[in-house]
């Protein structure tokens, strides 16, 4: 491409990005020669429209080009090898593709590149979300606290150097959650409290997360259920409902699940996606479990004849992201286990046996899977 034409093409690309026409910007960037500037623009546009694999492919092309250039220059002794470009962006793509272990490797590599300038706060928050994805709640909470401390000017913020000890993380959570400005910290803290079987703390932290999440969404806390498609309210409310369901308050939980499914159905009709597809799947699963536990009416008995997978597929139809990219490890395991229970209730033992075998190969010998395995062998 002639220099003048390339300059004109970059000007058009910048204009498209400024006008937030990301689909057109992505296509325009694809036509430009590979360079750091071209790749940064392409990756930025790709991230806005959910094209995670395309973003990763662009990053790999730039790395290959730079490696070839370094080989041609024989890696001049004074300069040494340059750090791989766009590590943070690729780690984010891997997180969105539900490839947490690869994302963690890139984040570790990024942290080692001390000479490279990058957004440390964004990397720490991403690290927290990746750890949450694989149910490493302690590590996730430590990362969130580190990010909060880095962004706070208050001398009372916890020192990140002490957060390698579980007791220090728990103490820092108790101290910082009440003053946190965003819902993520108490939400992650609630997950850790549930793992430690501290139900009272988990409930209090989820309530705090709901308050902050409602404020971020611009609605009153008492209107959260009615405005469940705003911001991240659905995720917080479904988590809160799951805890209520575990403690016997099924009616309140089912009210939340019904609201999520009604909003998801409305979004399907309008071809929109405001509620996270993973949240919808969890709501469908928990409502299905509530139905399995209550067989009083004929309608409920008929509902149990459905395969949970089919119910989830119907509720998430038309979603822009696939479910396998959104579920955390515990969520995916829980859905699989409850699907097996539904199959057993319907007498579809052979299907249940095949599914249990598949789940064990994926998740290992968890207690719930071992119990199912024993049940189908009786």
Automatic annotation (TrEMBL):
Gene Ontology CC: one annotated term: signal recognition particle, endoplasmic reticulum targeting
Annotated GO biological process: SRP-dependent cotranslational protein targeting to membrane
Domain of life: Eukaryota
GO MF: 7S RNA binding; ribosome binding
PANTHER family listed in its UniProt record: SIGNAL RECOGNITION PARTICLE 72, SIGNAL RECOGNITION PARTICLE SUBUNIT SRP72
Name assigned to this protein: Uncharacterized protein
């Amino acid at each position: 491409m002639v220099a003048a034409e390339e300059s004109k093409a970059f000007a058009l690309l910048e204009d498209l990005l400024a006008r937030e026409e990301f689909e057109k910007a992505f296509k325009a960037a694809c036509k430009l020669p590979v360079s750091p500037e071209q790749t940064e623009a392409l990756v930025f546009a790709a991230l806005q429209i959910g094209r995670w694999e395309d973003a990763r492919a662009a990053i790999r092309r730039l790395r290959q080009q730079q490696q070839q250039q370094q080989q041609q220059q024989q890696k001049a002794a004074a300069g040494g090898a340059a750090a791989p470009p766009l590590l943070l962006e690729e780690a984010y793509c891997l997180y969105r593709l539900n490839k947490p272990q690869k994302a963690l490797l890139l984040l570790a590599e990024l942290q080692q590149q001390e000479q490279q300038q990058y957004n440390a706060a964004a990397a720490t928050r991403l690290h927290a979300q990746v750890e949450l994805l694989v149910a490493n709640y302690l590590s996730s909470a430590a990362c969130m606290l580190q990010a909060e401390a880095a962004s706070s000017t208050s001398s009372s913020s916890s020192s990140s150097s002490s957060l390698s000890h579980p007791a220090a993380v728990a103490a820092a959570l108790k101290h910082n959650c009440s003053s946190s400005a965003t819902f993520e910290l108490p939400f992650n803290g609630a997950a850790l409290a549930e793992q430690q079987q501290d139900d009272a703390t988990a409930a209090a932290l989820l309530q705090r997360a709901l308050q902050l999440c409602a404020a971020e969404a611009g609605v009153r806390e008492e209107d959260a259920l009615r405005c469940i498609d705003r911001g991240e309210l659905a995720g917080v409310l479904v988590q809160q409902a799951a805890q209520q369901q575990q403690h016997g308050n099924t009616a309140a939980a089912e009210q939340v699940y019904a609201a999520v499914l009604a909003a998801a159905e409305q979004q399907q009709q309008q071809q929109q996606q405001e509620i996270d597809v993973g949240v919808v799947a969890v709501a469908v699963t928990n409502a299905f479990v509530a139905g399995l536990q209550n067989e009083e009416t004929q309608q409920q008995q008929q509902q149990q004849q459905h395969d949970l997978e089919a119910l989830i597929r119907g509720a998430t139809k038309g979603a822009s992201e696939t479910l396998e990219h959104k579920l955390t490890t515990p969520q995916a395991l829980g859905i699989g286990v409850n699907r097996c229970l539904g199959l057993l209730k319907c007498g579809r033992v052979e299907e249940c046996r095949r599914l249990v075998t598949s789940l064990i190969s994926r998740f290992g010998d968890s207690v719930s899977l071992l119990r199912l395995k024993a049940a189908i062998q009786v």
